[in-house]
Amino acid sequence: MPPNEKIIQARIADRLKLYPNYKKIMHQPSWYIKQQEEYLKEIKKTTLPYLIIKTKKLPDDNLTKEILIWLNEIK
Question: I need a surface site. Which of 39, 47, 65, 74 has the fewest CB within 10 A?
Answer without folding.
Answer: 47
